[in-house]
Design brief:
With 362 residues, the chain is α/β, with parallel strands linked by helices. The chain contains 15 helices and 8 strands. Helix content is 49%, strand content 20%. Helix 6 links the parallel strand 7 and strand 8 (211-215).
């Protein structure tokens, strides 16, 4: 390499602009030019320092771009255009998405856990695509969740969010769960609500001898309440009494016993009557899921029977950040922010930025 010239460089940091001069070298044979000092300093392309990018994206994954701009100005005296923050999230977000799919949790026990819970859910977010009726269309974010309890009873949870079809999300969820220690877990519990796409994923990717499917207790209870409210519209006390009895049967005897009780109850009404049809819909929901409702056995083993951890993951990841007043997104922009937010919620923010994502993205 031959010395070519000195060139100055500016970088915006949380402390303001920093300027330095460094030597540029060039190869006389191929014309390649390098700046060794920039590599030594770990300087990325662009005008933002890694530290300022880190702080900026930390604000962006929590709040709107406008609020992040205000936070930067108020706390660091740094003024950044909104477009700079948007472009930075689009640059770093895909790197964050790759990081969470290839890096195992730092708190995962090397010898595995006795029981790993896996679940997924869908959360709707507003896109900036206008439908045929002139309204903004909504898209579903698929949210995956893995959680487990350590020997002290403390909860450990990791989550994943993708804007894609169930057919694409299924194998991704399986690979990500393996990254979270699925193969070493002694037993696996897959929890979900009644959405058909969730159980299609369970059937295709979580269907081995170690895995038990559990229908979310609270989602089933919602269907029980819905039926009771239609059967006894003007009698709230009667509604509560029947739902209480049905839940007691579920808890002590399981879904098959409840199924038989509901069938017996349905026979009291004329076929085609309103009450008959209400119970028919409830039986139609419960019937295909009887194997997932042995709650007495689940409770005896100390298992979770509700998908609260999965649903709260959707609220943490999507609702709290992406469903503010007036928010609408491009799929790429939303995915970038959700990937950054997942890194933070999973407790991997410091580990991620140590991988120098700005240089990786370049």
């Amino acid at each position: 390499m031959n010395k070519i010239r000195l060139r100055s460089r500016q970088l915006l940091t949380p402390a303001g602009w920093v300027t330095w001069t460094r030597r540029v070298y060039g190869c006389p044979q191929c014309g390649l030019r390098v700046i060794p000092l920039d590599d030594v300093l770990g300087v990325p392309r662009g005008q933002l320092s890694p530290r300022l990018a880190n702080v900026s994206m930390d604000y962006v994954q929590v709040q709107s771009y406008d609020q992040a701009m205000a936070q930067l100005a108020r706390h660091h005296g740094v003024t950044l255009p909104k477009r700079t923050l948007v472009n930075l999230s689009w640059e770093v977000g895909p790197v964050a998405a790759g990081f969470e799919e290839r890096v195992a949790p730092a708190d995962w026990p090397k010898d595995g856990v006795d029981r790993l819970y896996v679940g997924c859910d869908g959360v709707m977010a507003c896109s900036n695509v206008v439908d045929d009726e002139g309204r903004l269309a909504w898209r579903e974010v698929k949210v995956g969740c893995c959680f487990w309890y350590d020997v002290s009873g403390a909860l450990h949870k990791r989550l994943l969010g993708r804007i894609e079809s169930a057919e694409t999300f299924g194998p991704r969820l399986r690979a990500w769960a393996e990254q979270c220690g699925l193969c070493k877990a002694k037993e696996v519990v897959f929890i979900g609500d009644g959405a058909e796409w969730i159980w299609n994923i369970a059937s295709a990717y979580f269907n081995d001898a170690r895995t038990t499917w559990v229908l979310d207790w609270y989602h089933l209870s919602e269907h029980l309440w819905e039926a009771a409210q239609k059967l006894w519209e003007d009698d709230p006390m009667h509604q509560s009494e029947h739902v209480g009895r049905w839940q007691e049967i579920l808890a002590k005897q399981g879904g098959r016993s409840l199924w038989r009780r509901l069938v017996s109850h349905q026979q009291r009404f004329a076929e085609g009557s309103t009450r008959y049809q209400v119970l028919d819909r409830l039986l139609g929901y419960l019937g295909p899921r009887l194997d997932q409702t042995d709650y007495a056995a689940y409770r005896e083993r100390g298992w979770c029977i509700g998908s609260g951890a999965v649903e709260s993951s959707g609220k943490q990841l999507v609702v709290q950040r992406a469903k503010g007043p007036g928010m609408h997104w491009t799929p790429e922009g939303l995915q970038a922010v959700l990937s950054l937010r997942a890194i933070a919620l999973n407790g991997d923010w410091k580990r991620f930025w140590k991988t120098e994502p700005l240089r990786t993205a370049a």
